[in-house]
Design a protein that fits this description.
The structure is a homodimer. The first copy, chain A, is an alpha/beta fold. Chain A has 15 helices and 16 strands. Chain A is elongated, with a radius of gyration of 24 Å.
């Protein structure tokens, strides 16, 4: 790589940048282009277009879980839409994805009093027998407490986890492994407090794991409020009896597709700057936030550049991943299929933690690539979105690339409420704001364009 | 009344106070007593007691709608609890209350795509025929828009209201009268955007009205998100077909009870300072906020004073109203039954807009009574709850008294999120905070005690 060979960072501390003057000046010269992109998105021909296209999409299809006909129809729709927007090389690439089906589900507190509890079965959970499961419950706050309780107390029971929310990263293990740990002690089902800092009695679903040689038991999310209530009842010595019914089942994998569109580079058509989000969602709400917004700023960024007649040196490739929610399945297939092209990827981008007000980019990659990105972010002053953070946070699908040293970035945005809606019925279009989406599309288009058009590759 | 005869405000502007020095000094002398009350509630023997007793109550009974056996059992429980807390003259007084029963309910969007919609039927609504109603929908933002649309467009349709939220007071008319206005134009049912500024796909129920000579049609609340989605679909020209099923029905009124407990005044046992909240709730969530918190600070205020051995000159009476949600039904019966005792009521208090962090009191009544209350509120500095507002807001049941000139106050508290939970499944114990409840109980007990113990009556 040209840029790496000049060894610019040899005598510079790792947290400081010392880009060659020529490169700094080159980046600064993109100011009018970046302003044009921002202006078109925020005030011009593209104003509210990301919101409008996203609203139409999520209203038409609703939620889009991997393995569903609905997701496949929404992919067909996207292929048409990308072609209508004059994007290039529009096509799909196959990925075999899990097919988990929720079916009907219900849960009742029977003792100490009758109350229907709001639940959402967790992805990959098996169902209950057709008559449901009726069992007494024990309530714990942690895996440690469960272990202490021991097999005698847990066997034949429904284990309720009322783990406190610390952060998504730290707390999600209860959703992911709660059923395994309870089953090891003979539990017959688990109800897991939703992984969220805020609730209006709203359960949040998400993927969970089973382990070989550990009995698979049904598992569902309950709201913060219900978990806390059951915990209080348990501590008060109430006899807690719960009825759980779930039709959930895992069917054989089916073929799905990643959806791809490009603006082909005029100088290095084989070099790729990838911008992405995932098109699939959970089977609740509308998947407008997770990750409709990320997917739609990714293809609209290209559509905007196309309208403005901006074709960079390298190819800009928008990828709308499939089956992210079941464990980055679409991205894994894509990375596998392109395992011999890795050198072609100059830079990878994903937005999968909200498209609220954009603040900048979070980054993983080499020090020198980070320095270039910081310089590019200075151009985003009109958006007030110049923040640079590292490591990258919120680009799960592109970690296949960043893990092998390809520099990448995710959207930094004012997403303090992201986990309020995440994987819940509340992930609907109302969460998305037209002006924020315009600004996200602008940031996404401008930064991807500049990276793709620079005279130098992004240093590995 | 002694105080009124001295005419202290004759030459004082209405917004200024000029209390007699003796009275100002008298009020100031309550400082150690008020500090003792606050200290006992926040740090002492009563710490977390309001929260604990409320949690046990709402966990045991859950929601408590008027007309239900559950509400009556919860009233029996309260009578026992008030007696166990050594309160005096514990008894109930009858009130005939509506009995509306929700039954099962469901709603499906059939076209342009199939999706189960989260609804809550509105109180007093009739049900649908047993096969449900399937009809096309029209969506409006206001009554004006509905009128413009006219009978031809509305007849045979389900009217969806997607009214923007301005404030509860200004927006609630759509819940209250939406069915009437739609039925006048021949609509077969209405779905009304929930009256709330925030939602996680959460519908909010509440009372609604029918009008004589206007056909009664079923009516239910939908979430903000769904109302907005249906509106977008309607504006896009989609053919919206909805299936609505509701078993709701109005049964004959049944006898319920207001629950009363006292600390009898040592000098003027016939003069009453009333502190109150309502014990009934909607039939969703746990009724912990609306109005478990208000009811529980009201009787715990007396229990706290009793423990501290504080008996004021006048009688302190705690009233836990029944059937507030159906239109202040318990309070109306109580006021009617006490119509010849009105002179006995010195001051009335209610908390029915949350028991978040207390800020002070809102007040309705004479200028002079307001001046006394302002002076008393100065004693609440240790709680940082000295704010005085007027007119009173959040004391619906006691308006029967304030409307005839009896001074009254409601709890001012940091209730910015009150309507996020109000009448929804999210009105659960998780909303309530132990420290805030201690502080509310302290403010409630201290201000009620001082008013009840002053040498002068509250001026009318």
């Amino acid at each position: 790589m040209l840029f790496n060979t000049i060894g610019l960072s040899k005598y510079v501390p790792r947290d400081e940048c010392n880009l060659p003057d020529d490169l700094t000046k080159e980046i600064a010269r993109y100011k009018p282009i970046v302003e044009g992109i921002i202006n078109a998105s925020v005030n011009g021909v593209f104003k509210k277009r990301t919101w409008r296209t996203l609203a139409r999409f999520v209203d038409k299809f609703g939620s889009r879980i991997a393995g569903s006909d609905n997701l496949e129809q929404s992919i067909d729709y996207m292929v048409d839409l990308l072609k209508k927007n004059q994007l290039e090389n529009v096509h799909t690439e196959q990925a075999l994805v899990p097919k988990w089906v929720r079916g009907r589900e219900s849960c009742w507190l029977i003792s100490p009093r009758l109350e229907k509890l709001n639940i959402l079965g967790l992805g990959s959970s098996i169902g209950t027998p057709s008559k449901g499961i009726t069992a007494h419950a024990v309530v714990v706050e942690s895996f440690e407490e469960l272990q202490k309780m021991g097999k005698e107390a847990v066997e034949g029971k429904i284990v309720v986890y009322n783990e406190p929310y610390i952060s998504y990263e730290k707390t999600v293990k209860y959703r992911g492994y709660g059923a395994i740990e309870a089953a090891k002690l003979g539990a017959v089902a688990t109800l897991i407090r939703s992984v969220t800092p805020f609730s209006i009695d709203s359960p949040h679903t998400g993927w969970q794991h089973y382990q070989e040689n550990v009995t698979q038991i049904p598992t569902a999310a309950i709201s913060i409020e219900v978990a806390e209530m059951l915990h209080r009842m348990f501590q008060a010595g109430d006899d807690i009896l719960i009825y759980l019914f779930m039709e959930a089942r895992n069917l054989p994998p089916v073929m799905s597709r990643n959806t791809i569109a490009e603006i082909i580079g005029h100088q290095h058509p084989d070099k790729v700057v990838l911008v992405s989000g995932h098109l699939d969602s959970w089977d609740v709400g509308q998947g407008a936030m997770d990750d409709g917004g990320g997917a739609f700023i990714s293809w609209n960024a290209l559509a905007l550049l196309k309208i403005l007649g901006l074709r960079p040196r390298r190819t800009l490739r928008s990828v709308l991943w499939t089956a992210e929610e079941e464990g980055l399945v679409g991205a894994a297939a894509y990375f596998h299929d392109h395992r011999n092209d890795v050198a072609a990827f100059d830079f990878v981008m994903e937005s999968d933690e909200g498209t609220f007000q954009p603040l900048g980019l979070s980054f993983s990659g080499s020090h020198d690539a980070g320095c270039i990105l910081k310089e590019i972010l200075k151009l985003m002053r009109p958006l007030n979105a110049t923040q640079f953070a590292t490591p990258m946070d919120g680009g799960p699908d592109i970690e296949y690339f960043t893990n092998v040293g390809i520099p990448g970035a995710a959207l930094l945005n004012a997403n303090e409420r992201y986990f309020w809606y995440h994987h819940s019925q509340g992930d609907r279009m109302t969460v998305e704001d037209p002006i924020n989406l315009d600004m996200c599309t602008a940031l996404w288009a401008a930064s991807a364009f500049v990276v793709a058009d620079l005279s130098v590759d992004m240093p590995r």
